[in-house]
Task: inverse folding
C-alpha cells in the first residue's frame, strides 16, 4: 500500500513537470519564432536602399514611390511591439509592391543584372518573412490552446505563461492590386 | 481557424502508420510463436534473438550513418550556397516555414528529375536533388518538392523506415533459418511429444508466408509516409498547387533515375522503380495520380491563411 501511494505521488509529480515544461517550451518557441520574423524584416530593410538606388538609376520620375518606400522602411525599423511591427511590415510590403510594379514599366531596368539579383533577394526575403509569420502564428496558436485547455491551463500561472498575440498584418489595401502609374 | 484539410490528412496518415507498425509487431510475435510451436522453446530462444540481433545491427548501422551512406550509394555530392544560391534561397524559405535546422544539400548528376531526404535526425538531415529536377522545375514547384523532403525530415521517416526494415529483416532472417532447419530435420527436439498436427501445419504456413507479409507491411508503411509527407509539405507552404504541379512534371517525365537499387528506392520523391514490374501492393509510393488528386482536393479548399 505504501508503495502504491509513493508511486502515485511520483506519477503526479512527473505529470506536473511534463505540463510545466510543455508550456515553457511552447513559450520559448514563440519567442524564437518572433525573433526569426525580426531577423527577416531586418534583412529586407537592409536590401531596400540598394534596391531604391538601382531603380532610381532607370526611373528618375517616380519620386513618390521612392518616398513611400523610404518612409515605410523608417517606420518598420522603429516599431517594437508585435502589433506595431506587424502593421509596419504590412505597409512596407505594399510600398515594395508599388516599387516593383513601377519597375515593370522600364524594360532596361528589368533586364539589368543588378536588378534581377536584387529582385531574387527581395522575393526570397518576402517569402521568408511570410513563412516566419506563419510559423510564429502556428506556434502562438499551439501556445494559446495549451494555455486555455485542461490540463495545461492549470499550470499556466505557475509557469508564468499567458496567451500571446497573433502577428496580423493589418492593412486594408493588402489584398488590393497596387496602383501602377504610367 | 477551422480544421484544415492537411491537418486531418496528417493525423489520419500518422494513425495508419501506428496501426501498421503495431501490425508489424504482431507479425513478429506470431512468427516467434509459430517457431515455438514447431521447434520448441530451446531452439526458439536461441534463434529469435540472433535474427533480431542481425537485423538490428544491419539496419541500425545504415540508419545511424544514413546521410553518409546514401551519399555514397547514390553518388550525390554536397554543395554550398555559392554553387546554387537560388536553390538555397528556396530551401531556407521552407526551413523557416518548418522551424527545422538547415539540412545539408547535395546534388546527384542524373538525367531524371527526382529528389530525396535522409539522415537519422533533423540535425543530421540531408536533402538531395538530381541536376535534372533543378532544370525542369520553377520556383513554386521546387518549393513543393523541398517541402515534401523537409516533411520526411520533420516526420522522422528515416527512423520509421529503419524500424520497419528491422522488423521485416528479422522476420525474413528468422523464417529463412527455420525453413532451412526444417529441411534438414534439425531442431525439432519435441518431435516425440504429442502435438496437434493442425498447429504444426499452421505454424509452418506462418513461417513461410511471414516474410511476404512483412514486405507488404513495409511497403504499406512507406506509402503512408509518402502521403503524410505530401500533407505536411502543404502545412509548411500552404500552397498545394506547387507540389501538385511538381508531381505532374514528375509524372509526365518517363525517365527514371539510373540506379534502380531496391535498397534506396523508397527515399526518392518519385519511385525510381518501373511501376509496371512492381505490383501496387509492393510499391513504396502511392500512385502519383492519387497524390495529385489529393493535392488538387486541398487546393479547392481555397487559400489557407497563416
Result:
Amino acid at each position: 500500500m505504501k508503495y502504491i501511494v509513493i508511486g502515485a505521488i511520483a506519477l503526479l509529480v512527473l505529470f506536473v513537470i511534463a505540463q510545466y515544461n510543455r508550456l515553457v517550451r511552447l513559450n520559448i518557441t514563440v519567442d524564437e519564432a518572433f525573433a526569426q520574423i525580426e531577423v527577416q524584416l531586418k534583412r529586407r530593410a537592409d536590401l531596400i536602399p540598394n534596391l531604391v538606388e538601382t531603380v532610381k538609376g532607370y526611373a528618375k520620375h517616380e519620386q513618390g514611390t521612392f518616398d513611400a518606400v523610404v518612409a515605410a522602411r523608417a517606420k518598420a525599423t522603429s516599431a517594437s511591439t508585435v502589433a506595431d511591427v506587424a502593421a509596419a511590415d504590412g505597409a512596407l510590403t505594399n510600398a515594395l509592391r508599388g516599387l516593383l510594379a513601377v519597375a515593370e514599366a522600364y524594360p532596361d531596368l528589368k533586364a539589368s543584372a543588378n536588378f534581377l539579383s536584387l529582385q531574387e533577394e527581395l522575393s526570397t526575403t518576402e517569402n521568408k518573412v511570410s513563412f516566419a509569420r506563419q510559423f510564429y502564428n502556428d506556434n502562438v496558436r499551439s501556445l494559446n490552446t495549451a494555455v486555455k485547455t485542461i490540463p495545461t491551463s492549470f499550470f499556466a500561472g505557475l509557469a508564468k505563461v499567458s496567451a500571446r498575440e497573433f502577428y496580423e498584418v493589418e492593412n486594408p489595401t493588402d489584398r488590393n492590386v497596387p496602383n501602377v502609374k504610367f | 481557424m477551422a480544421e484544415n484539410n492537411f491537418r486531418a490528412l496528417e493525423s489520419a496518415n500518422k494513425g495508419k502508420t501506428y496501426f501498421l507498425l503495431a501490425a508489424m509487431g504482431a507479425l513478429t510475435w506470431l512468427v516467434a510463436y509459430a517457431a515455438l510451436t514447431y521447434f520448441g522453446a530451446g531452439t526458439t530462444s536461441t534463434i529469435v534473438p540472433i535474427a533480431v540481433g542481425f537485423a538490428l545491427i544491419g539496419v541500425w548501422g545504415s540508419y545511424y550513418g544514413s546521410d553518409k551512406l546514401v551519399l555514397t550509394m547514390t553518388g550525390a555530392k554536397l554543395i554550398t550556397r555559392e554553387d546554387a544560391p537560388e536553390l538555397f534561397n528556396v530551401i531556407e524559405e521552407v526551413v523557416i516555414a518548418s522551424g527545422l535546422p538547415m539540412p545539408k544539400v547535395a546534388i546527384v548528376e542524373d538525367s531524371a528529375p527526382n529528389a530525396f531526404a535522409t539522415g537519422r535526425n533533423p540535425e543530421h538531415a540531408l536533402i538531395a536533388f538530381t541536376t535534372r529536377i533543378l532544370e525542369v522545375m520553377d520556383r513554386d514547384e521546387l518549393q513543393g518538392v523541398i517541402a515534401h523532403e523537409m516533411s520526411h525530415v520533420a516526420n522522422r521517416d528515416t527512423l520509421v523506415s529503419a524500424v520497419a526494415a528491422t522488423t521485416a529483416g528479422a522476420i525474413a532472417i528468422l523464417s529463412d533459418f527455420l525453413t532451412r532447419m526444417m529441411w534438414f530435420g534439425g531442431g525439432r527436439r519435441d518431435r516425440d511429444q504429442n502435438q496437434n498436427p493442425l498447429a504444426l501445419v499452421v505454424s509452418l504456413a506462418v513461417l513461410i508466408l511471414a516474410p511476404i507479409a512483412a514486405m507488404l507491411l513495409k511497403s504499406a508503411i512507406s506509402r503512408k509516409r509518402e502521403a503524410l509527407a505530401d500533407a505536411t509539405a502543404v502545412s509548411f507552404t500552404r500552397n498545394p498547387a506547387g507540389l501538385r504541379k511538381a508531381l505532374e512534371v514528375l509524372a509526365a517525365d518517363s525517365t527514371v533515375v539510373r540506379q534502380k537499387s531496391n535498397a534506396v528506392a523508397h527515399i526518392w520523391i518519385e519511385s525510381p522503380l518501373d511501376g509496371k514490374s512492381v505490383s501496387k501492393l509492393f510499391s513504396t509510393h502511392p500512385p502519383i495520380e492519387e497524390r495529385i488528386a489529393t493535392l488538387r482536393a486541398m487546393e479547392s479548399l481555397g487559400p489557407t491563411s497563416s
